[in-house]
Design brief:
Elements lengths: L2 H38 L9 E8 L13 E6 L2 E5 L5 H7 L7 E5 L5 H4 L2 H12 L5 E5 L3 H11 L1 H11 L11 E5 L8 E7 L2 E7 L9 E7 L2 E5 L7 H7 L4 E7 L1 H13 L3 H10 L6 H11 L3 E8 L8 H5 L2 H4 L3 E4 L4 E6 L6 E4 L2
Parallel strand pairs: 3-4, 4-5, 5-6, 10-11, 11-12, 12-13
Antiparallel strand pairs: 1-2, 1-14, 2-3, 7-8, 8-9, 9-10, 14-15
The structure holds zinc ion (ZN) (2 copies).
One zinc ion binds next to helix 3.
Length: 357
């Protein structure tokens, strides 16, 4: 290689190394800015006063990359509540730049595993994110004490690791875990007000997820706006009764047709357990059309499906999932997706949809 060629190669290598180092410096600077902006973000602060629903998990026990386990955040003004703690829920809360540490209370609908399998993580994140000094209040029907005692037992070693590593000032031992606030529905009305405070009321009502008992839904009202969360249930009159005239009905939904396809495939590939489970799950959930009938009869403004069964890997399957729902209910129907935020500003009848993911 002559001198000219050597010089040329030297120049190219120098430029590449220099541009690599510049590129890395730019990347690090961008990463720093992004981290700062994520950590200081508060997407709720800029919203008007109202009820704001954030879908942190719209799936079911099925693995689904777009839909984590059942998890719904409800902001009443700036107060943050969570309904059900399915797997991935608290991670989605963080991904949406919301702070698990601000969760004021958690409400559970029932104790099927998909509704509590993210509970340990949610409880831990709520404790360590801001160093809460009192445990997370968890409301739920009978059976709650068993669940909370078990989760706290399972996390008892981790609790000590965290305190000895970070110190009591950062993770106060008094803030670890949860306080179970088990409630019993009124035997005459099958409902109960579980939280009432100024403009906010959260009540619980019995649903029909038989043989799983008890199973409940929740109604949240705040300054004239209202939401019903159905919980897991087959179509029943209690959800209809509680939903009458509400702004937003968040209803679970299972497509018997699509679940039937999985059942047929399970027969073909000789997986009898899967086939039996697919056959069984249809009878304690609500089809999208049945939920649409409830929305129509209750005259709700908007129907949002969550707890979507089975997974919908492509949006092309959505019309099949919905079946005739749109012919049954003339209001807005939306198939919930993790990251959706649905805002109900006070002093208005508006329902605004946007995304946090
Ligand atoms: Zn269930
Ligand atoms: Zn479920």
């Amino acid at each position: 290689m002559n001198n000219k060629k050597l010089l040329f190669v030297y120049l190219i290598v120098t430029v590449l190394l220099f541009s690599c180092s510049i590129k890395n410096k730019i990347l690090v600077a961008v990463a720093k800015k992004t981290i700062e902006s994520n950590l200081s973000a508060n997407p709720i602060a800029k919203l008007p006063d109202g009820l704001h629903v954030v879908l942190c998990g719209t799936g079911s026990p099925f693995p689904d990359e777009k839909r984590m386990g059942p998890c719904t955040v409800v902001f009443a003004g700036q107060r943050m509540f969570v309904f059900d703690a399915g797997t991935g829920g608290s991670r989605n809360i963080s991904r949406m730049k919301l702070n698990n540490g601000n969760i004021e209370a958690l409400f559970l609908t029932h104790y099927h595993s998909d509704h509590i399998d993210g509970l340990g993580e949610l409880m831990l994140q709520r404790w360590v994110s801001v160093g809460n000094s009192s445990p997370l209040p968890i409301y739920g029907p009978q059976g709650l004490d068993t669940v909370i005692t078990g989760i706290m037992q399972a996390y008892s070693l981790d609790k000590n690791y965290r305190i000895s590593h970070h110190g009591n000032a950062t993770v106060p031992s008094t803030g670890f875990g949860a306080i179970p606030k088990s409630f019993k529905l009124d035997s005459a009305t099958n409902k109960i007000v579980v939280l009432q405070d100024k403009d906010l009321e959260i009540s619980s009502f019995l649903v029909d997820h038989s043989p799983i008992e008890p199973a409940v839904g929740y109604k949240i009202t705040y300054k004239g706006r209202s939401i019903v969360i159905s919980g897991d249930t087959k179509k029943n009159t209690k959800v209809l009764e509680e939903s009458k005239g509400v702004d937003l009905l968040l209803h679970e939904a299972l497509s018997p047709y699509l679940v039937g396809l999985i059942e047929e495939s399970a027969v073909k590939v000789k997986r009898p357990n899967l086939q039996k489970i697919m056959k069984d799950i249809v009878n304690y959930h609500t089809s999208p059309e049945e939920a649409a009938e409830i929305a129509r009869e209750a005259k709700v403004n908007t129907l949002v499906f969550h707890h979507i069964v089975p997974p919908l890997p492509t949006s092309l399957l959505e019309p099949i999932f919905l079946g005739n729902s749109k012919q049954i209910f003339s209001g807005k129907i939306h198939i919930g997706l993790d990251g959706d935020i649905i805002s109900l500003p006070t002093g208005s009848t508006k329902i605004n949809f946007s995304r946090l993911l």
